[in-house]
Design brief:
Strand content: under 5%
Helix content: 55-70%
Number of helices: 25
Radius of gyration: 24 Å
Shape: globular
Bound molecules: zinc ion
Distance between the termini: 63 Å
Largest sheet: 3 strands, mixed
Length: about 600
């Protein structure tokens, strides 16, 4: 930690004196091999000629350099938590990280309070405002430790409660705890499984009766969210409390579309059009929900044995990203993929440290990817490619420290992660990287099964919050019958198995709307001479320059529309969905 403080102080001095070369540099605590270094140089050189260096300079240099140190230690603190470790990968004990973080906080706070007498340029004012906002939104404290008093593991007693007696925050926390408890431990046919394992087995289980048992073993999960579906159920109470809290303002769900210039009604129309298109490709007769998962799972059944272990999916993941010029190891991307007790079962990507500036040079950060994989398989490969998509995105950030962060919009962030990852669903890609492929229709069913389910959930959330009195079980069975071709089961709350429905209203809309963004981005990349099918090592540097580098420097909408040459359109996704129907599309559109 002393080294880091000394380094940043020195950088501050150096920044005043030095020029603005856009050159990669490595320094502690980054530990890369010589070959990795040359690969990094290649990536960065390919990025030049870049903008003038975003290294701290000018009247904000001291404040921004201390902000960068604060970010570094806060990232390291979260990294320790994610790893469940007492030492950082560089060997620092937790106490030292905490101490450095405390020092970094007080240094930044002192500089912020001291202010500056020099008038700031508009860019500097914006950067300062961003830092102040981050400071008051959690950087000043260990935010992740202080919120959600109701979180933690639910227990039997705790989960036997009266929803009406809790306020919105406490009900949200209680529901999530009880949901997590129910989802983490499910016994079926003598096997102890969890929600993800069951959903993972449905597409692979050949015996329909066993599929049905697997599916229905999720009932305790559904009940943890929606009880017996009476008006006082946890979820129905939650929806009412949310509506009250939101009042007449737009809900978080309704705000998703307008962030990209899309009126709420228009977004709903896009969703129903895409869902209608995918319905066209389905059999006319309705499928039971457990059979629907199986129907979508042909690609997974055929291709999973080709990447059976975690090592297999890592190998394919690394090979693909290397082909497009983004070898994960050279970009400083780290993986922690194995399960362990107490580990968050959700896959995610975070900054172990972010790219930072020292003496006018860029020091490569370390994106970290966390999952809990017991084995490989096609579906885990798909998820791993998505997470690495996040990793290569944040590895490409080239902006000043104030803006060195995820973009300002989650939908955009999720779409960026899929831009390269979705190539997995092309038969040609499968033959090249897996050695075998499934027919296009089966590949596209695999690609879109998750997306159309997310779209159905998005539609569900839009409608249930518009009419809080509606029966959610009835609403879900209507949506899934009409758009997914699933036999109605209004007697079950089988929609109630996504944690985001509890703690992130509208978050599932990210995935749904993100699919439109991704399809448009991929189509536009191809039209601009960078198709993914042929890949090539210039693809990543180009994406870095055009899409990935901005962080908070520009709004997501600005970056997106600059890249697309206008507003996002639904057509590329609808066209891709139409490929799924193949010969069935004649009569429709
Ligand atoms: Zn993601």
């Amino acid at each position: 930690m002393e080294a880091e403080r000394a380094r940043t102080d020195k950088a501050e001095e150096a920044d005043k004196a030095e020029g603005t070369a856009f050159i990669p540099a490595l320094s502690a605590p980054s530990a890369l091999s010589a070959s990795a270094f040359s690969a990094l140089s290649a990536v960065l050189l390919a990025c030049s000629p870049g903008p003038p260096t975003p290294a701290p300079h000018g009247p904000l240099a001291r404040l921004e350099t201390s902000y960068q140190a604060l970010r570094y230690w806060d990232d390291q603190r979260r990294l320790l938590g994610s790893l469940g470790a007492e030492l950082t990968p560089a060997g620092l004990p937790e106490s030292a990280v905490r101490e450095s973080l405390a020092v970094a906080r007080s240094t930044f706070n002192a500089k912020l309070t001291a202010g500056s007498s020099t008038p700031l340029s508009p860019a500097d004012s914006g950067a300062r405002a961003t830092m102040v906002e981050a400071w008051s939104n959690g950087l000043s404290t260990d935010a992740t430790e202080t919120n959600d008093g109701e979180r933690g593991t639910g227990n039997g007693d705790q989960c036997n409660y009266q929803p009406a007696e809790l306020d919105l925050d406490r009900l949200t926390g209680r529901m999530y705890a009880c949901y997590a408890q129910a989802a983490n431990l499910i016994v079926v046919d003598g096997d102890t499984l969890n929600r993800l394992a069951i959903l993972g087995r449905l597409p692979r289980t050949g015996d329909p009766a066993r599929r049905r048992r697997l599916f229905l073993s999720l009932q305790p999960v559904w009940r943890s969210v929606n009880g017996d579906n009476r008006a006082g159920s946890p979820y129905r109470t939650l929806v009412r409390l949310r509506r009250e809290a939101w009042g007449d303002t737009a809900s978080p769900i309704e705000r998703k579309g307008p962030a990209f210039g899309l009126a709420p009604a228009e977004m709903e129309r896009w969703l129903t059009e895409a869902l209608g298109e995918s319905r066209e490709a389905m059999p006319d007769s309705l499928l039971e929900p457990w059979d629907w998962y199986y129907y979508a799972g042909e690609a997974s059944r055929r291709l999973s044995p080709l990447v059976a272990t975690v090592a297999d999916i890592r190998r394919v993941n690394d090979a693909w990203y290397t082909v497009i010029g983004a070898p994960p190891e050279s970009l400083g991307i780290h993986y922690d993929l194995a399960p362990r007790p107490g580990k968050d079962p959700v896959a995610y990507t975070d900054f172990g440290s972010r790219n930072r500036w020292a003496s006018g040079r860029l020091v490569q950060g370390e994106p970290w990817i966390f999952t809990a994989y017991l084995d490989g398989g096609f579906d885990n490969l798909s998820e791993l490619l998505h997470e690495t998509g996040h990793g290569i995105h944040i590895a490409a950030l080239r902006t000043r420290p104030a803006w060195m962060d995820w973009p300002d919009n989650d939908t955009f962030t999720e779409a960026l992660a899929d831009v390269a990852a979705l190539e997995l669903y092309e038969p040609r890609w499968q033959r090249r990287f897996l050695g075998d492929s499934v027919p296009l229709a089966a590949a596209l069913r695999a690609k879109y099964a998750g997306i159309v389910l997310d779209m159905a959930w998005a539609l569900f959330e839009i409608r249930v919050h518009r009419q809080p009195e509606v029966d959610p079980d009835r609403l879900w069975s209507d949506i899934t019958r009409e758009y997914l071709g699933i036999a109605p089961h209004p007697e079950w709350s089988w929609w109630a198995m996504r944690g985001q429905l509890i703690d992130g209203p509208g978050y599932l809309v990210n995935y749904a709307l993100g699919a439109f963004l991704t399809a448009d981005l991929r189509a536009r990349a191809a039209r601009r001479g960078h198709p993914f099918g042929t890949g090539g090592p210039s693809l990543y540097p180009w994406l870095g320059r055009e899409l990935f580098r901005f962080g908070l420097e520009r709004s997501s909408r600005e970056v997106l529309e600059q890249f697309l040459g206008g507003q996002v359109r639904p057509d590329p996704l609808l066209a891709d969905l139409r490929r799924m129907a193949g010969g069935r599309t004649g009569a429709h559109r």
